[in-house]
Every structure is written in C-alpha cells, then in structure tokens.
Design goal:
single chain
Length: about 160
C-alpha cells in the first residue's frame, strides 16, 4: 500500500492557528476571571485564525482524499465512465475554488484600496481577507493533485 499523500505546510499552518486560538482564548478566560472584563481583540483574531484553520484543514483533507463524498455511483460505474465522473468532480472543484480565488482577491484588493480597518483592532481589513484567496489557491492545487492521483489510480474512493 502506498503512503497517504501529505500536505505538510497546511498541517503546520492549521496546527499553529489552533494553538494560537487556544492560547488567546485561555488568556481571555483568565483575564475575565481576574478582572471581570475581557480582551477586546480576542474575538477578531480568533475568527480570522478559525478561517485560516478551516482552509488549511480543508487543503489537507483534499490532499489526503479525505473529503466526504458518496462513492456509491463511482463504484457502480465501469472504468471509463468512472474516470469521466472523477474528472467531472475535479473540474467542479477547480471551478468553485477558482471562483473563490478570483472574488476573494477582488475583495482583498477593494479593501486595500478603500483602506478599510477592522472594527476591533483597527488593522487594515485586507490583512485578514487576503488569506481567503491565498488558501483557496492552495486548495485548488491540492484539488488538482487529488484529481490526477485518482485518475491515475493512486487513490481509492474509500481512502
């Protein structure tokens, strides 16, 4: 059996985001317990890191062929139509992720041009938004890798 494909940079990014979320949440709980008030920046930063964690984790799942899908139709089809279905699935994923990259980049550019700041910390909003198209582009690459591996028979639909 061949080893499962890996997405090490995305795993590290997801782990780092999770650790930082845990630390700032713990700090907020301790601060609230001691002072009765909370740290204002924690929610804004936690939401941003949760988005990073979600996209990085989704990229790992794509690379490892771990996204949920119903493989009953694939298993029922003969080899030729099965390959066509895998290709169609891959193209749909690439199209969707391409749209996220395109519109996410447009949104980040608009936020940069308008010099919008975040409500909690007053940081440039594009600092948060630029991660959407970047990580969607990483997912797009992982989608292509997964589709090619499935077409070449390197990944089963039950992996």
């Amino acid at each position: 059996m061949t080893p499962s494909p890996d997405a090490r940079p995305e795993r590290w990014l997801a782990a780092l985001a999770l650790v930082i979320i845990a630390l700032i949440s713990l700090g907020n709980v301790i601060t609230r317990y001691i002072t009765g008030g909370s740290l204002a920046f924690t929610e804004e930063l936690s939401v941003f890191l949760l988005v990073v964690l979600t996209f990085a984790g989704a990229a790992v799942a794509l690379r490892r062929n771990g996204h949920i899908r119903i493989g009953m139709l694939e298993r029922a089809l003969p080899h030729g139509p099965r390959r066509a279905l895998v290709l169609l699935q891959g193209l749909c994923g690439v199209l969707l992720l391409g749209l996220i990259v395109w519109f996410g980049a447009k949104l980040a550019w608009q936020e940069y041009r308008w010099e919008t700041t975040s409500p909690g910390l007053g940081l440039p909003q594009w600092w948060y938004i630029v991660w959407l198209p970047l990580l969607a582009a990483v997912m797009l690459v992982r989608q292509l890798q997964q589709t090619l591996d499935r077409l070449r028979g390197r990944l089963d639909d039950e992996s």
